[in-house]
């Protein structure tokens, strides 16, 4: 069955520090998608990225970058030069296209606090 | 990107009553889902809302407690039946079209007294 693990429950960093949020997943499918979502204190879910299992290229978007490694079943998220506005809960998620009919399952989340 | 509207956005209900949450998508989508987010927790999938047929429920969720309708490709409802304080959560409607981004509504925050 599909599973997402985010071992870091809470992280605190000082503003301008870099921080990496870990995500490890389990799946039997060869075709799957990985996601990251941000949930700020206001509560809405903000989509950050989607990556399919055939694309292992790392991605950078401004201060955000993602490292996808199939060999270790990991999809880690790094925020460079963190800002107070980055304080939120971050969820990693997985969907198996075949086995689970494309349902998206979320990890437990990592709560990030950026201290000014 | 799809825009999802949910109502009510929040409600306070009495134990033993039922509440129906409506979800409207601004475009036709293949798949719609309902999630629950209990306080301080992650999102848990309740069910996949299937257009024109019975919803597909995840383990731990049953139709009698969470009846779901999806009469067309843009609309779905979730009813929380015979509510108890343990049902106090945020209920989120989501939608996607093909294996792509999963869009979310703003959620319905339910408090059961």
Explain how this protein is built.
The complex is a heterodimer of chains A (116) and B (113). Chain A has 116 residues and is mainly beta. Helix content of chain A is 0%, strand content 53%. Chain A has no helices and twelve strands. Chain A has strands at residues 3-5, 10-14, 19-21, 24-26, 32-39, 46-52, 59-61, 64-69, 74-79, 88-96, 104-106, 110-115. In chain A, strands 2, 5, 6, 10, 11 and 12 form a six-stranded mixed beta sheet that branches. A four-stranded antiparallel beta sheet of chain A has the order 3-9-8-7, with no helix packed on it. Chain A is globular. Chain B is an all-beta fold. In chain B, the strands form two sheets. In chain B, strands 2, 4, 5, 6, 9, 10 and 11 form a seven-stranded mixed beta sheet that branches. Chain B has a four-stranded antiparallel beta sheet with strand order 1-3-8-7, with no helix packed on it. Chain B is globular. At the A-B interface, strand 6, strand 10 and strand 11 of A face strand 4, strand 5, strand 9 and strand 10 of B.
């Amino acid at each position: 069955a599909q599973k997402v693990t985010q071992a870091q429950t809470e992280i605190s960093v000082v503003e301008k520090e870099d921080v990496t949020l870990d995500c490890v997943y389990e799946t039997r499918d060869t075709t799957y998608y990985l996601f990251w979502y941000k949930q700020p204190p206001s509560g809405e879910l903000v989509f950050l990225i989607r990556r399919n299992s055939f694309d292992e290229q790392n991605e950078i978007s401004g201060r955000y970058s993602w490292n996808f490694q199939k060999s270790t079943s990991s999809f880690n998220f790094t925020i460079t030069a963190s800002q107070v506005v980055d304080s939120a809960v971050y969820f990693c998620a997985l969907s198996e296209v075949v086995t689970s009919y494309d349902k998206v399952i979320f990890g437990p989340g990592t709560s990030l606090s950026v201290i000014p | 990107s799809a825009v999802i509207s949910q109502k009510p956005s929040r409600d306070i209900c009495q134990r033993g009553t039922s509440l129906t949450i409506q979800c409207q998508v601004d475009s036709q989508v293949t798949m719609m889902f309902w999630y629950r987010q209990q306080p301080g927790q992650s999102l848990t999938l309740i069910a996949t809302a299937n257009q024109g047929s019975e919803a597909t429920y995840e383990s731990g969720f049953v139709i009698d407690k969470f009846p779901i309708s999806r009469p067309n490709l843009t609309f779905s409802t979730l009813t929380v039946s015979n509510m108890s304080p343990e049902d106090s959560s945020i209920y989120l409607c989501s939608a996607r079209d093909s294996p792509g981004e999963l869009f979310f509504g703003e959620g319905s925050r339910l408090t059961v007294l």
